[in-house]
Amino acid sequence: MNIHPMRRGALALAVLAAATFASTAEAAPMVLNFTQSGWTGGGTVELTVTVDDLDSNGQIMGFGGSSELLSYSVSFTGNGLVGGFSNSTLGELMGFVYDLDGGILGDGTTGAVEGFGIVSPVTYATGPGPFALCDGVQDCGQISFNGVTLTTTQALTPGELAVVPEPASAALFGLGLVGLLGLRRRLV
């Protein structure tokens, strides 16, 4: 079949866009959601993190403002002992370590121990970094505020995993798709 040079160009652009999108989709940032309950007096912690495994080792390391942890948001609904709180300031971060194995935060199966912690407006820490392995028996979470300490034996449990497409890749993929659809119409 003889393809017109303009159509060949559109087809080449579509193939290039698809290949570029596919190659960057693996390295794209991910959004991870966690919940943690079982606190003394009730309440639930919700943690959402945007991460990027820059060194492709299957583990996210995040300390302070420079790391594979791009952003986070943690909140506690509160109870009668400690009011609700929220934080998303990287400067307040004690650290974040998580193995991208889909397991709970605190099982530490593939590398250094996993954990998460912040220092303001309350001190909140979870995982075997500050505690023992999250096994449902020993404390693996602690919230401290004004002399009150809450504990839980429940781990931060992962929920949905979402890939955040990079804007340039998504645009290039869309452009290639438009070209491919145009080429298809001309060939039919």
Walk me through what this model shows.
This protein is an alpha+beta fold. Helix 1 runs antiparallel to helix 2. About 11% of the residues have low confidence. The chain has a 7-stranded antiparallel β-sheet, with no helix packed on it. The protein has 2 helices and 12 strands. The two termini are 13 Å apart.
> Taking Cα atoms only, what radius of gyration do you get, to the nearest Å?
22 Å
Helix percent reads 10-25%
Spans of 5+ residues with little confidence (pLDDT < 50)? 10-25, 169-173
Oligomer: single chain
Task: Figure out the total of helices.
Answer: 2
> What's the β-strand tally?
12
Give the class from helix and strand content and strand pairing.
alpha+beta
Biggest β-sheet strands, sense, barrel: 7 strands, antiparallel
Through-space gap between termini: 13 Å
Question: Which outline best applies?
Answer: globular
How much of the sequence is in beta strands?
25-35%
Q: Output mean pLDDT.
A: 77
Task: Record the strand order, biggest sheet.
Answer: 4-3-7-8-9-10-11
N to C succession of SSEs: HEEEEEEEEEEEEH
